[in-house]
Amino acid sequence: MATIKEVAKRAGVSVGTVSNVISGIAPVGRERRERVLAAVRELGYYPSDVARSLKLRRTNMLGLVVSDITNPFFSQLVRGAEEAALKHGYLLLTFNTDDQLEREKQVLSVLRGRRVDGILLVVAPVQHDVAHIMETMARGTPVVCLDRVPRGISVDSVTVDNAKAARECVKHLLELGHRRIGILTGSMQLTTARERLRGYKQALQAYGLSVDPALVREGNFRMDSGYELAYQLLRGDRRPTALFVSNGLMAMGALRAVADVGLRCPKDIAVATFDDLPLSEILSPPLTSVAQPAYQIGYEGARILLDRIKSKGVSREAIKVVLQAELKIRESTGLNHTRRRRELRGG
After folding, report:
1. Mean pLDDT throughout 121-143?
2. Residue 85: which CATH number?
3. Is there a domain that residue 247 lies in?
4. What is the pTM of this model?
5. pLDDT of residue 40
6. Quick check: is 314 in a domain?
7. Where is the domain boundary, 56, 74, 95?
8. Does 280 map to a domain?
């Protein structure tokens, strides 16, 4: 493999000139630049990415750490982040933690060792263990948290107004006449789960209803959890007439539980969920869902991160972007086709 010294000798220039042509850091005259590029082609020279990154103190790589890559929400988030990264000449390294804190710590350590220029992070369920995030930022690697914001740390973030979206969804169920509305939440260690529960409570309180603890079940945002919690709730003495499920995967499990206990949706029980999964419209019945801008969360997070990298860590107040979700009303909450067509026409 040819070396930079051999390229310089073939082109009749200094090693510094070759480096300037390849990196673009300093201008080089047209004639010398063409000689260098010709020598590069003739010798088949490939610059060392490692050496170049050490010199430039930049690798043009970003890390993205998600909690569950099998969740379609995070797949869309990854696509958005990757699109923004590629537009600016960056590659995206994606890791999955499976919601395990120790794996998250390990991944951040690896990314620091690989000298990535910045990290996009969907945190695992934790209460106050954020030392690994603080250490990463202290070492000069900017971090932007996506979807979930850890407690006890000031960090850039892109999230959704979870409380508002949940409130609107539960309000829809209340407007249909439901008063016993169950909720299946994610782990209360996560801001998303806490905020969605808060929106649920706000909607009930706005209608003068108290929260029945028996209708509140905490899970872990996984499909099996949705099934188990819904099955328990629907087999109880005073089952709810409607279910609000805090994420799409749990909703899939909840719908299976509805069928297994012999109930029909929406005739026997209405179901609505946070997350508008790709399957939501083709399910039978189609699922009323809160559609999150997952792609936009990833794209906006990467954009903020790239701005931080460009500003070279200039200290300023944490950027907190809050996006809005959209309630998509479908047949799983009792909306029939005739009414839906009438609403779409605005009549």
Report:
1. 89
2. 3.40.50.2300
3. yes
4. 0.80
5. 85
6. yes
7. 56
8. no
The answer on 301 and 270 residing in a single domain is no
User: Are 123 and 179 in a shared domain?
Assistant: no
DSSP for 105-117 reads HHHHHHHHHTT-S
Structural domain ending residue among the three candidates 244, 275, 306: 275
Number of domains in the chain: 3
296 pLDDT above the threshold of 50: yes
Question: Residue 332 carries which DSSP code?
Answer: G
- Digit-coded pLDDT (tens) for 22-41: 766 568 888 888 898 888 88
Q: What is the pLDDT of residue 25?
A: 59
- Assigned domain for 123 exists: yes
The closest alpha carbon to 291, from 314, 306, 304, 274, belongs to 274
| Distances in whole angstroms, Cα of residue 249 to Cα of each of 1, 70, 203 | 51, 10, 23
What token pair was written down for 185? Answer: 């939440």
Which ranges in the chain belong to alpha helices (H)?
4-11, 15-23, 30-43, 49-56, 72-87, 101-113, 131-138, 162-175, 191-206, 223-234, 248-260, 294-310, 337-345
Tens-place pLDDT, residues 141-172: 999 999 999 988 899 999 999 999 999 999 99
pLDDT, tens digit (0-9, with 9 covering 90-100), for 174-200:
999 999 999 999 999 999 999 999 999
**In whole angstroms, what separates CA 262 from the centre of its chain?**
35
Residue 49's domain comprises 4-56
